[in-house]
Structures are given as structure tokens and as C-alpha cells.
Design brief:
Elements: H1 3-26, H2 35-63, H3 69-74, H4 94-115, H5 121-149, H6 153-166, H7 178-185, H8 192-209, H9 231-246
Helix pairs in contact: 1-2, 1-7, 2-5, 4-5, 4-6, 4-8
Length: 252
Amino acid sequence: MTAKEALLNYCLRLGDSSLILGQRMSEWCSNGPILEEDIAMTNIALDLFGQARTMLTYAGEIEEKGKTEDDFAYKRNEREFYNSLLSERPNGHFGDTIARNFLQSAYFFHLYTTLSSSKDDMISAHAVKSLKEVTYHLRHSAEWLVRLGDGTAESHEKVQISLDDLWEFTGDLFEMNEVDELLIKEGIAVDLNEIKKEWIKTVDQVLERATLKKPENGYMQTGRLNAIHSEYLGHLIAEMQFLPRAYPDAKW
């Protein structure tokens, strides 16, 4: 694998996770539990789409085949996406969404904190800008997790179940392969083992405040590095890609 191929794949990973989670969050538009949260979750979706656009645009520049961010978003099939398994999990009820977003946002927060020092100027600039947004995303989901976990007996039980169900997909966040090894040597990527240590600290701190129990590690689902996904991604991208695939020559 060349350095160019590794960098392309790395950018797709970053862009795809933001894109797919943004699509999930957009499904809350007009469906939020209260107006304020409806607006908040829609704005989070917009932040994520912006992050995705930056990395997918950069991926096109690296590949040098004339592709745009739209080509990567709308003209790839399921087995060509490298998003985290966590990002594609269904919204479920509000507690499911909050738990999923907290686990993913905590990962993004520590990832972008470290990537801010990347030797790749585009990735470091992207990380600095994204960090401002994901700091809010993390605070939003963490405060809601505390509110639900330390709320009523019913809300506590529901969000604990949400965490228990999602936990097996968190191992996928920290998987690495030759792409990471090559780019870490170049000072471009980061060691996800180090990110995991900081992620666990954040998770422990918030769960303690929320009076929730961290699920025990068991079998962990993985697949993003090889573009292997759950059945949910196919349904998601079919909806996301319908319009540009049905009308490929449409102009806005």
C-alpha cells in the first residue's frame, strides 16, 4: 500500500463516519421530543455534514480522478463505505440516540484533539475546526445522558439498556490496520490505543455522574476497516442516495 492510498482511505474513514451519523441525526428533523432538541439535533447533523464534506472533498483531491464530495457520498455502494458501525446504528428512542451520540462524540473529541497536531495540513485544519463542533456535541449528549440516567427510574432503566446494547460496537472505533501504521510513522494519523485510554476516562466520568454502569467488555463487533457493515447501512444509504441516483443529471 502506498502513502497516497493510505491517506485516501484514512480520509474516507473520517468523512464517512461523520456523513452517516449526520444522516442518522437528520432523521430527527421535525421528530424531536421538544422544539429545542429538534433544532439542536438538526444543527448537529449540519455540523457533521460539514465535517464529512471537508474530508470527502480532500479524498477527491488525493485520488486525482475528478471526484467530488457528492460522488463519494452518493455514488458508492455499501461495501465502499468505511464509517464506524456505531454511527450507523438506528436512532431508536431518544435515549438510544443520546447514548450512541455520546459514545461516538467522545471518540471524535479525543481523536480530533490529537489530530490537531497532524503533519498533514488539511487534516490538522479539519481537526481544529471540527473540534469546536464536537466539543458541543459531546457536551450535549453527556448532559442528556446524565439527565436521563439520574432522572426517573424509567429513564435510568431505558438508557442503561441503550448503553448495554451499543457497547459491543465501540470496539470497532479503535481497530487499526496497515493504513494506521503507515500514517502514524508519517506523523499524520494517531495511535487509537492512546485515544481509547482518554475515551474510557471520559466515559467513566460521565457514567458516574449519570449513575449508570459501564457495560462489561464482551464480544466486539468490527468491520469498518474492511467496509463490512450491519444491515442498517444499506437501508440508510438507499434513502440518502435515492434522489441523485434517480436523477443523476439534475441541477439545483
